[in-house]
Amino acid sequence: MIYHILPQAVYAALDTTQPYRSETLATEGFTHCTADLELLLWVANRFYRQVAGPFVLLCIDEARVTSPVRWEESDGNLFPHIYGPLNWDALERVVDFPRSADGAFVSPLGLQ
């Protein structure tokens, strides 16, 4: 399972009749994901803690992604990057990504 962090408002506005294209697919050529819970929390708190509002996690079955998935090094860790649009049938589920009162992201239930 790989995970993609997304503001809940962005997810709610998506057209699910079309494959998902993250903002970074256009700007960087791939969609950022992670597969490790500790790294997921580290990334969320490093890059999104100051972003207001609720977030969700797209829980993606890597084996069903039709675009290339490449595991690449960043900050001394390996991260899965999706090089193309995400087909919705690779999505296992969407879960709320909870935050503490100070805005820090915490482990989602069911992913511990």
Walk me through this protein's architecture:
The chain is an alpha+beta fold. The protein is globular. The protein has one domain: ADP-ribosylation fold, CATH 3.20.170.20. Strand 4 (69-74) and strand 5 (77-82) form a beta hairpin. The strands form two sheets. The chain has a three-stranded antiparallel beta sheet. Strands 2-5-4 form a three-stranded antiparallel beta sheet. The chain has helices spanning 8-12, 23-28, 37-47; strands spanning 2-7, 31-32, 55-60, 69-74, 77-82, 91-97. The protein has three helices and six strands; from the N terminus they run E-H-H-E-H-E-E-E-E.
Beta content: 25-35%
How confident is the prediction overall: mean pLDDT? 94
Uncertain stretches of 5 or more adjacent residues: none
Helix count, per DSSP?
3
If classified by CATH, what would the architecture be? Alpha-Beta Barrel
CATH superfamily: Protein of unknown function DUF952
Give a quick set of tags describing it.
112 residues, alpha+beta, ADP-ribosylation fold, three-stranded antiparallel β-sheet
Give me a quick take on this structure.
By secondary structure, the chain is an alpha+beta fold. The protein has helices at about 10, 25-30, 35-45, and strands at about 1-5, 30, 55-60, 70-75, 75-80, 90-95. The strands form two sheets. Strands 1-3-6 form a three-stranded antiparallel beta sheet. A three-stranded antiparallel beta sheet has the order 2-5-4.
